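For reproducibility, we list the full input for the glutamic acid complex.
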Amino acid sequence: MTGISVRFAPSPTGRLHVGNARGALLNWLFARKSGGSFLLRLDDTDTARSTDDFAQGIEADLRWLGLDWDRFAKQSDRFALYTAATDRLKSSGRLYPCYETAEELDLRRKIQLSQKKPPVYNRAALKLTDDDRAKLEAEGRKPHWRFKLEHRITAWDDIVHGRVEIDAASLSDPVLVRSDGYPLYTLSSVVDDGDLKISHVIRGEDHVTNTAAQIQLFEALGYTVPTFGHFSLLLDADGGGLSKRLGSLSLADLRDQGYEPMALNSLLARLGSADPVEPQLELATLVAGFDLGRFSRAPARLDPHELDLLNAKLLHAMDFAAVQPRLPAGATEAFWLAVRGNIGRLSEAADWWPVISGDIATVIEDRAVVDAAAETLPAEPWDGTTWKAWTQQISAKTGAKGKALFHPLRLALTGRDKGPEMAPLLPLIGRDRVARRLRGM
Ligand code: GLU
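The corresponding predicted structure, in tokenized form, follows.
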């Protein structure tokens, strides 16, 4: 073991979307590249919104991507640790009770903004006397608890951003415990990262300001501060916010739409990095080429067209063994090799199966060409050269060439005007079927 340990920490309040998948994949690649360990942590302290179904869905989504985890933790099993941490912070004077209601805080923020002041919590609760607090509690108010930040520059060397320095005086003291006693993410995440010895916290740059407060919290609780890396956010290809078309799609949607998980992995492993996006059939290849240090601060642009292209390229390179369980029953390797170059999603292969194995509606576009085809139909056995020899004969007989020759034949034999190469398809359709189709039966 290298001592390197990372985690992916989704909240089971919904299914994973493409943005989450990127966080999972980058952490997983980092762990596998460094010989470290990967923890799946479910941030389910919000018991009202977290469900077992979503938790199972997240695990299924990660398995679909091929991402396995070495360790598993659930925050709902760990409340005792958060309470112990809270007690430590109270006794060291770093956690203080506040009694403002959400409406009061909101009003104060609005006043600060109208005075062009930053909307930072003014620490009014620190000035309360014991009497004030007793009075407020007698009114029925229950305190929430804030972490008292030290007003100093808090800095770290970020794997993606380089040196980051944040003046903690510009931040509100974060609320760590709600008035109903529930610990909030800022606390539970630090306790878990510290307790489970996470060495590298790799997450989206929307957490950069949290990081300054969390570094102080790691220190206040006596934990080793991990190394941080904040990857940039995903934007739409045209520069808008997170893509409605792709970025906010759930992995379950993408799976239902027939995308290959490795198409998504290939895209997400490189998007936003200096390395080119390339279709890869194996996660191991993505691991070998992974370097978080090559990710840039510029937003990563997600282009649905790029995913489609990667998906098609992967299918074109996939072996029969890799797809056989998802092909129609009875489909052969020759069938797969004949159609794989012509499909964008694996499900399209099934559309071609009846063309070689069943009865389909065909179209007679040019009677003369089709009749000549029937008259010159070669005897079996057929192979990959039969198509060329046969169509040369049909051409010689009718004078038809190019599109005028091939289009009516394709329509008569497959019922469609586009599709895979006819040369490998023809022997698969077989002489009996071809003869019947040429007779319009
Ligand atoms: N549950 C948190 C989130 O999904 C985890 C953030 C983190 O990685 O620290 O935003």
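The domain at 236-319 is CATH 1.10.1160.10 (Glutamyl-tRNA Synthetase; domain 2). The two ends are 68 Å apart (CA to CA). Both points were considered when choosing residues for closer inspection.
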